[in-house]
UniProtKB/TrEMBL annotation:
It comes from the Eukaryota. Pfam families: Porin_3. InterPro entries: Porin_dom_sf (IPR023614), Porin_Euk (IPR001925), Porin_Euk/Tom40 (IPR027246). PANTHER family: GH26960P-RELATED (PTHR11743:SF70), VOLTAGE-DEPENDENT ANION-SELECTIVE CHANNEL (PTHR11743). GO terms for molecular function: porin activity; voltage-gated monoatomic anion channel activity. Belongs to the eukaryotic mitochondrial porin family. It is found in: Mitochondrion outer membrane. It comes from Chytriomyces confervae. One of its GO terms (cellular component) is mitochondrial outer membrane. Keywords: Ion transport, Membrane, Mitochondrion, Mitochondrion outer membrane, Porin, Transmembrane, Transmembrane beta strand, Transport. This is Voltage-dependent anion channel protein 2.
Amino acid sequence: MAVPNYSDFSKDLNDLLSKDFPLGNAKLEINQSTSNGIKVTVNNIKDSTTGKIVTDLKTKYTDKANGVTLTNTYHASNVLTAQVEVQDLISQGFKLDLHGAMRPSAGTTSAKAGLELKQANVFARSSIDLLAKTGATIHTDVVVGSEGLLLGGDVAYNSGDSTIHRYNVAVGYKTPEYTLGFHASKKFTHFTAGYFHNISPKLQVGSRATWDQAATSHVAIEVGSKYILDKSTFIKSKVNNFGILGLGYTQALRPGVKVSLGGSFDTTRLHENVHKVGMTFVFDN
């Protein structure tokens, strides 16, 4: 099995417990692809509490023949971002990533350059801030794996004050059927243990225990499941030890049109106005 990058170390479990639960907002996503490799995405999100609408427009051009991807995003908050990715630049498995952002109203800019190495048993990434005024920050993460066993580390070093701002480690075991993972993050003050299981082609279950040493002495436990009703519909549920119940329903109405409904309910205060609901529409063409 392919070794994941550090951000995707526990992706199966994170997706199970986080994705397809649209809460507190209504979202409309429109994706349009052209024959020459350009994909246009429009996201509109309305917060049900404040009524504020957030919009962004993203265009992505992929040149598969040369391994080049160009992505531009314009946010309604007047932020422009641009990203250039070049695959297999030096040799097979190397990728160059250049990312820049500009806020014209504030006159601020930022830029970051990164290099990624992906091989059979290792996935390594490193990036540096190019326009930092107080010293460049170097971010590096590495995951190595063999026969299902995974070991990863993540660190951020600032050259301005010569300090390590962040360090995290993760260890796990991954098979096609189940995944085990343990994370120690926030300078070893935040600990997470998780388990994900593909019980059958229709049923997935998972659980996660989290302890933040700096915030509380209690362990937060969350359990979730996903059941596929048919090829176009699935339902999800999750509950934690604080009595918060999450429910999600996703259905493909027709090819290219998908709707998701979600809700979060505090079962300890059912008669109070503390619950959240939301929905997402996705159009792909």
